[in-house]
Request: fold
Amino acid sequence: MRRLRNHGLALAALLGFSWAAVPVQQAEAAGTVTYAGTVTYKVWHWNIAGDAINYGSTTNGLVDAILGSLSARNPDFISLNEVCPDQYHAILVGLQAAGWPQSSTNFARFEPMPDVDTRLCGSDPGPNQQPYGVALFSRFAPTGTDRITLPSDGDKDRKLLCVSIATQPGDPSFCTTHITFDDAVKQAQLDAVRAETDTITATGGTVIAAGDFNTQPNDPLLDNWYSPNVNSSNNGNNTGTYREFDDQDPICPGYGEQTTEGSLAGACGQPAKVDQIFAPERKLVSYTQDAHPIATDRCKNRNGVYVPCSDHRILDATVTLTTP
Reply:
């Protein structure tokens, strides 16, 4: 497992940004902080199939669809999987123009996931031509970043990308990851991600981890993630310390709502749920999550024909956490 940690000025330089610290007063002014030992955050996640369906384009409707959803949902944390560099930069610029981040020069992170075939995103060649990867955006200026390469599946350099926000109550960290589809390596990658989130929690922080885990909630590979309190016919035998923000959904208790639009079968007679957002159970006061069906009239393929923007659904969650 290869790990690269960056802080402050070095990160800003890497991204071409100037460093600008954000005082705690700005977080208070945003209305997110409460003073009864809790804090509430809104989280938004989407595997956008930036190359597979959207061929790296920033003009086929995908970026507009993302920015439109973000404007409507107004999250504090944003997670993207399978995002191409040009798309990442277009979203970054759109969020800056909307005045969304508290610091316009320190709120976004991208981590590429190169593969053995050195395949690049399918947009026209440009300065940001790279493999797709994972990205996150934080309303609050990050004070540290972890970029961790997960155990190899022989195909892609799968990543875990996390930011910490020391200016917010409870010292929160927000992470995004995209786990392999290779069953032989899934456990090692899931364990590596969980080891990092456990470390953040053990040292006093509060972690929220989102991503395409390529693993369904009722898969035994996630038994050491889910708390034993998640115990239903749809998801049992759990030994972990985390809750997933949709595990109380009445559509399928313990499992949640589908997040894919494909043919892979899930629980309760619906397609599979592989996109999840986790947090430590002992830090949770309340949580809720929805998976939103994907519009079919927003994104166009190379032939100009409307297609679903992704084969994954958007996750939109709200969580209230305890703070020290």
Remarks:
- The chain has five helices and 15 strands.
